[in-house]
Amino acid sequence: MTPAKLWLQVFTAGFAVIVAMLIITLNTPIPYGDLSRIGMVSDHEFGWQKDQPQVDRAFLRASPINEADVLVIGDSFSATARWQSVLKQHGYRFATVFWSEFHESLCDDFDDWLDRAGFKGKLVIIESVERLLADRLANTQKCKAMGNVPGTRIEPFFEPVEKVPGFALNWKARLTSGYVTYRNTRAAKEAQGPTLAVNQSWVRPVPDGCSLFSNRLCDKALFFKDDDDNGELTVQHVEQMRAFSEAHHSRSIIWMVIPNKTTTYLTPEHSQDFVTAFARAGLGPDLFTFAKEQKTKIRDFYFPNDTHTSLFGQLALGEVMLGAVRKIIPEPPAKSS
Fold it and tell me: Where do the TM regions start and end (predicted)?
């Protein structure tokens, strides 16, 4: 065989492999869940199949901080403004700022910062997912100054997908992602127990999963590895929260602690000492018990392919928070003309 023919055969074989990989990638569903995206498993098997509730855009619009009745300090669970929309539907104006804007900590001058921000309301809701709260509280123990007031965001920080996406060619993916996704998905389907996809996504069997999730492979769901790695919350964390609330009493504070998806579906005993102490302290609603109840009432309370609550779950959380707000502000303040 001449060198030219050998080169041509190698080129043809390589070209065929590239074309095959391109075809596979183009036909791999574009992921619409954060865990399916980072874990590179197919949303054909793990994507939710139940369209999400739509909310009137008027209820998703926040108010400037100086006009808000309720100030929310939150993370990605507050980024869609869906749970806050329930407050607005009942007349409470809200503003939302994020932990990331304060380097994941609250500080000694919190009351002064609220004054500098022009916040005239009576209530602050501090929202955090379970897995990040311990670090945030540790940072808060050391923080002296809040820094500048962030700019007001009127529209939601993140716009979620509300309908199951239709087919579209996956042009933006890397050439190899289709094959990797196929390989990971096949391994997930064949595994009898938990399997780690790539990065931070666990594929885990879920007891009675098909009554809890709407994805095609509904006896399994995706879970965030950080849920395991970040450890449990404890009684000491409740004491830190109580101390912060007592030190900053110019406004009422409600702590809104959202349990990890793994805690809700697989390890209900996780952070149990914290849950018991938190309920006794009366710092906010017990969302751990609430989530365990709602997961059997709302299919896709958490998305099967995502670490966050679905929009159904967000609205359910909003109803709980509305009840907590009404205990402090029974009626929305009258709006000035």
Answer: 6-27
**For residue range 211-261, what is the model confidence (pLDDT) as tens digits?**
999 999 999 999 999 999 999 999 999 999 999 999 999 999 999 999 999
| Structural tokens at position 63 | 């108010």
| Three-state SS sequence of the chain | CCHHHHHHHHHHHHHHHHHHHHHHHHCCCCCCCHHHHHHCCCHHHHCCCCCCCCCCHHHHCCCCHHHCCEEEEECHHHCCCHHHHHHHHCCCCEEEEEHHHHCCCCCCCHHHHHHHCCCCCCEEEEEEEHHHHHHHHHHHHHCCCCCCCCCCCCCCCCCCCCCCCCCCCCCCCCCCHHHHHHHHHHHHHHCCCCEECCCCEEEEECCCHHHHCCCCCCCEEEEECHHHHCCCCCHHHHHHHHHHHHHCCCCEEEEEEECCHHHHHCCCCCCHHHHHHHHHHCCCCCHHHHHHHHHHHCCCCECCCCCCECHHHHHHHHHHHHHHHHHHCCCCCCCCC
> In this model, does residue 194 exceed pLDDT 70?
yes
